[in-house]
Design a protein that fits this description.
By secondary structure, this protein is α/β, with parallel strands linked by helices. It is about 25% helix and about 25% strand. The structure holds fe (ii) ion (FE2).
Length: about 230
């Protein structure tokens, strides 16, 4: 568990293979709420060590599946923390009808944590139903797959080349090419991006790769210049 900002932590999970081949590092984000409870975003597989680290912060009150792809940790965490509330992206239940969800995070949903963590269900994409979060007290944007900044170190030259071509390699990584190529409604996506860029943040946590302390607003603006420019 690494401290990222005021009341905000990250915890790196196991490496996975996207589409069965492409190596991805994984990361979950943990916030301690004013209630004293803990909000867990995109939970990685729980291990005794990981749970102990989270338990030190407080009782787990909320589990968040930020898009329909990041589903693996939800059931194992709920089994360990049965009183936690599960929040999921708008299309999550369509993709995972057997995973119990309490509330789908559409844009008109108010959560008990909304004063501390704002959310935007990004609209206009044909496939990805990602919900982006603003952790207000630390000024941190939390993004799962919409922006990726994969570490180059330790990768074979083949995967570095693939990730570079997809626009997701290193600190300059941005919106993956496959996501750019599958926009359904450009105007709707732009409205979502404009809303996010209107938030007050300077830091960025991503699920895959380099996070940013400072300069995040400009980095996110650049990552979306193909839709806003
Ligand atoms: Fe992902």
């Amino acid at each position: 568990m690494q401290s990222f900002g005021e009341k905000l932590w990250t915890l790196d999970g196991d490496n996975v293979r996207m589409f069965g081949v492409l190596p991805f590092t994984t990361r979950m984000t943990v916030a301690r709420l004013n209630s004293g409870g803990v909000w867990v975003h995109s939970p990685v597989q729980p291990t005794p060590e990981r749970c102990a680290a989270v338990n030190e912060l407080g009782p787990v009150e909320h589990l968040v599946a930020p898009n329909k792809i990041h589903s693996l940790g939800i059931e194992p965490w709920r089994a360990l923390y049965p009183s936690a509330t599960v929040w999921a992206s708008p299309a999550f239940t369509e993709r995972h009808p057997n995973i119990a969800v309490d509330t789908l995070l559409t844009n008109n949903v108010e959560a008990p944590w909304s004063d501390e963590i704002d959310h935007c269900a990004v609209e206009g994409h044909a496939v990805l139903d990602e919900v982006v979060f603003l952790h207000k007290s630390s000024g941190t944007l939390i993004i799962t797959d919409l922006i990726q900044k994969h570490e180059a170190a330790g990768e074979t030259w083949v995967w570095r080349g693939v990730k570079h071509a997809a626009g997701i390699l290193g600190k300059d990584g941005g919106v993956p090419l496959d996501i750019k190529l599958s926009v359904r409604d450009k105007a709707a996506l732009r409205l979502s991006v404009d809303r996010i860029l209107g938030w007050d943040f300077d830091n960025l946590v991503v699920a895959h790769g380099h996070c940013l302390h400072g300069g995040a607003k400009e980095a996110v603006r650049q990552a979306f210049d193909w839709i806003t420019g």
